[in-house]
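Async update (no meeting this week)

Hi team, since we skipped the sync, here's where things stand on the single-chain job. The sequence we agreed to prioritize is pasted below, unchanged from the tracker. I ran it this morning and attached the output directly underneath so nobody has to dig for it. Comments welcome in thread, and please keep replies under the output.
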Amino acid sequence: MSVMARCLIIFCISLNLFATEQEKLVSAFHERFEVVKENGQTMRVLDRFIQAKFDIRPYVQFIKSALIEEQQRMASKSDYEQEIYKLVGDASFVEKGKEIKYAPIVMDSLNELKDLDVENVFNDPRFNQVVNYFEERINRGLSLIGLNVIAELHDPLFFYKRNVTYEAVKMALNLAKRITSSIPVLNTASYVLVEVERLIRERRHFHQNMVMHYLENVAPEKLSMTHDEVSLVWSSIYESQIPWYAKWESDSARASWKKYGPNKFYSFWRMASGRLRNWRSNYVQVGDRINFAFNRVVDRKNNPLIINLFDTQNSISSKPAVAYHENDPQRVLRMRFVYTIAELGLSFVPIPQFIKDIGSSFLKSQYESHRITEGALYAHFETEGNQEMMDQIMAQNLNPFELRFYDSYMTIKDF
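Output:
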């Protein structure tokens, strides 16, 4: 067989594999997302896997179970403190010329929860009055948006002018302060309200990152859209992430609507590529770029990793965050679980508020944006039909409002 013939065969095989991958991507996209058209024009993108009505009970049950589980772990593990110090590491900040390490703050936060009467707090009528009031206000506001709307192509203010979740939190917090003087009940209720509001927003962002994986890798016509419509989907996704107070950014989005999203995306893409170049020497091997945000690498200890190029390790490090440790699959999940619980405990610690704020900011910087970006990683594994890794990413997302969260969490949780 001639060299030319062999090259032609290899080319045909590669072309066939590419076509098969494209078919998988297209099929997975249309199974999950609905492209809504009116008069032949794409109006919005909906996610079939997001329930239409909000129910607060999954999160309340999750945080209650998590607290009880961590209390049991504290009581049964003799090396519990060493585990926490190892997870947090040597990170520190300087205040008035003095170095303050984060690990003792996290440990103090967890110790404050050791003797918390979890059943008493969560069964308190005042606690339940607050969360039920919040659920009612949230559902009233979200009816204006639709929980499953991923992108609204022709309204540059669609998400910004419907920033209703923030208002619901504010009203519920005021109610909590009026009706209870119990510190455990007030602190826990306040924590639940703030976290639930954040998780509602995060769920949409997580699914929007799924969409972006497909927009990056599939031709517009295969997604039943035109090139211009895909650009508008990008713009709506980024518009939905504008904070309620950032009117200047909302005005910028409206002024350049067709180009706003693509410009944002490719700006982040270039930033991610630059981060990989800057940290290239930290890895003995740099593998495939999975998509816009994730890359396979092997670190200097020969640990295979998936790194997140969009998000840094935390607020004091510019190193790419790790989304998955192949040799320690539960590490990311365990770390996020601990930090989630520690944030509640921090409200009980008798230290100055500014230190609490610094500690809380550090804890959130370890995982908050990371798990949203991982929506793109979930979409990659969904396309491959890799259920094990889908479960892994969904579990470490730690969002009880996801339909598959509990199944995934219970499947892989092994602390």
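Quick observations from my side:
The longest helix spans residues 183-217.
The mean pLDDT is 89.
Reply here if anything looks off.
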